[in-house]
Amino acid sequence: NFMIEILKVLEPRKFLAKETINNELDEVNEILFIEKGEYNIGYEVNKTEKFKLRMGQNTVIGAFNICFNKRQIFIHRTHTECTGYSIRKCNWKRIMDDFPEFFSILKRKVLYEYITKIRKPIMAFKDKDIIHYDKRADF
Question: What is the tens place of the pLDDT at every residue in 69-111?
């Protein structure tokens, strides 16, 4: 059973408040399952970090990146102390290979959730900020 395989390789994780989990363009080496705490998602524009989305318990960081082999395009920083579990990329890939039918369904869900809940809203904010900076006379 794939759930038993996943449970075997989960590792406890803890992040302090205001700790950076991922920066833009970071390689993602683990999927984080946040059990408690809140974190912010944002981006950098004009050497300034902007955090526009706050997420918390029962969310996942890095699933899209590992499932689709993509680097991180946003910044993830804890707002409060966060605790949860992680699964390393190599373990996730091995389990994906062992249960392809299940993971084809999961990958579609991960893609949909990432695009609708994270990428689209954050990119809309980023586009507005870029336009705002383009219109300023001091830049």
Answer: 999 999 999 999 999 999 999 999 999 999 999 899 999 999 9
Give the whole-angstrom CA distance, residue 70 versus residue 51.
21
**Position 81, amino acid:** E
| Model-wide pTM > 0.70 | yes
The C-alpha angle 121, 77, 66, rounded to 5 degrees, equals: 70
Residue at 14: amino acid letter:
K
Q: Are 6 and 17 in contact (CB under 8 A)?
A: no
Residue with tokens 């705490």: 37
Sheet holding 59-61, edge to edge: 11-15, 82-88, 30-36, 59-61
DSSP conformation class of 74: S
C-alpha 77/C-alpha 79 separation (Å) is 6
